[in-house]
Amino acid sequence: MGEGNGRQLASKWAKTAALLSHPRIAPHVPATRMYTKSNLRSMLASYGMVVIKPVRGAGGHGVIKVSRTAGGYSYTYYANKRSFSTFDGLVSALSGLKKGRSYLIQRGIHLATISGRPIDYRVKHVKAGEHWGIRSMVGRLARHGLFVTNLCRGGSQMTAAQGIRRSLSGGMVVRKKQEMRELTRISTQVLESRFPGIGQLGFDYGLDKNGKIWIFEVNTRPQ
To answer: Residue 57 carries which DSSP code?
Structure first.
């Protein structure tokens, strides 16, 4: 199966649920629930900051960061930030942004940064014949003022080694790249067994300020 082919799977929820079923992978997946008012309330109470994103979508489109603040709540949507004194006010505003689409809520992770800009990593895993291989592993640095790192949103690209070295330390580069390779290999086995016919996967990883690796999502049409 060549690059560009293979089964497509749009639902972030289905892929996340599959990863959460594996004991080696689950600790690296941020807590994730379907969007409801009660789930949003409880997850903000537990984590202080969450990210909500469309169940179907790519390119960082429609992704919203929601936080508890000293004065109530706030959200960041692209470069726009709004604050609310009440939870109901927040939920009402989010309903306008969601436009009736299904969303999920994911625990927010405080990513390691470079000059205050968050960085994450994309690992592209492609099947050629019967064998999977990693085609690329790159860092994606958010544009100043944004929290999404997608290149189509103005993010900039660097090697994974550069990203790890500049955001954490050079001493972590080899170990963290190897850990991402291992998580990619195991996750691919899980996803291929659950969804036969997939042929390429794009893993979005984040490293938090302590260097722990998190799997944010997996795309079956990686750009």
So the answer is: -
Could you tell me what percent of the chain has a pLDDT over 90? 70
If one compares 31 and 150, the residue with the highest pLDDT of the two is 31
Name the residue with tokens 């060549």: 2
* Domain boundary residue, one of 62, 86, 107: 107
Contact 141, 151 (CB under 8 A): no
Q: Is the dihedral of CA 6, 32, 112, 147 positive or negative?
A: positive
- The whole domain housing 87 covers 32-107
Same-domain pairing of 79 and 134? no
Which phi and psi angles does 2 have, rounded to 5°?
Answer: -90, 170
Domain annotation covers residue 150: yes
Tokens for 185? 């290999």
Per the CB < 8 A criterion, the answer to whether 60 and 148 are in contact is yes
Q: What is the spatial distance between Cα 34 and Cα 207, in angstroms, rounded to a whole number? A: 24
- Strand boundaries in 36-182, DSSP class E: 49-54, 64-69, 72-77, 80-84, 103-107, 113-114, 117-128, 131-141, 156-159
**What's the alpha-carbon Rg for the chain, to the nearest Å?**
17
* 77 CB-near residues (< 8 Å, 6+ apart): 64, 65, 97
Give the lowest-confidence range in 4-8, 109-113, 185-189.
Answer: 4-8
What CA–CA distance (Å, rounded) separates 85 from 177? 42
Q: What is the pTM of this model?
A: 0.89
At 220, is the pLDDT very low, low, confident or very high (cuts 50, 70, 90)? confident
* Runs of H (alpha helix) within 99-202: 160-167, 173-194
